[in-house]
Amino acid sequence: MKKKFMSFMQGRYGADHLSNFLMVLSMILMIIGFVSGKEIVILVTFGIAVIVLAYSYFRIFSKNHYKRYAENEKYLSMHNFFKSFFSKGIAIIKDRRKNHIYKCPGCKVKIRVPRGKGKIMITCPKCKTEFIKKS
Ligand SMILES: [Zn+2]
Fold first, then answer.
1. Residue 100: C-alpha distances to residues 38, 76, 80, 92, 129 (Å)
2. How far is the CA of 104 from the centre of ligand 1 (A)?
3. DSSP for 65-87, written as a single string
4. Same domain, 68 and 39
5. Predicted confidence pLDDT, tens digits, the chain (135 residues)
């Protein structure tokens, strides 16, 4: 049995990041369908989940390594893009909690000021305009 499986898997591409992601995605879709409890949602999510899962298996058993590798590379670059996009977004949200952003009335440059200091005099670092704001 193990031998048969080994010879079957010979030359096949196997699992990679993209196929793992697709499997998790299809599982999430099925869970969404279950949780919704609505027939139409279950039908749609399960339909998509089956297609996603089939594609994932197709990739694993594929013998076209070159194409599968290229797909995985594309996925990884997209993954990294979204990861950095979200971590940047979270960093900005965290920063907004601690700091206020004011626009200089003179030159419109953005100035970061720590929150919770009461009324303060802000001096623009670019044009030296002074203005008072509540932080
Ligand atoms: Zn200024």
1. 45, 35, 29, 11, 18
2. 5
3. HHHHHHHHHHHHHHHHHHHHHHH
4. yes
5. 788 888 888 899 999 999 999 999 999 999 999 999 899 999 999 999 999 999 999 999 999 999 999 999 999 999 999 999 999 999 999 999 999 999 999 999 999 999 999 999 999 999 999 999 988
pTM for this structure? Answer: 0.69
Tell me, yes or no, whether 77 and 129 share the same domain: no
Domain of 104? Answer: 99-134
CA angle 133, 134, 135 (to 5 degrees): 110
Quick one: 22 and 77 in the same domain? yes
Query: Do 6 and 71 fall into the same domain?
Result: yes
Cα 103 to ligand 1 centre (Å) = 8
Of all residues in the chain, what percent are helix, strand and coil, respectively (each to 5)? 65, 15, 20
Are 29 and 86 within one domain? yes
Q: How far is the CA of 87 from the centre of ligand 1 (A)?
A: 30
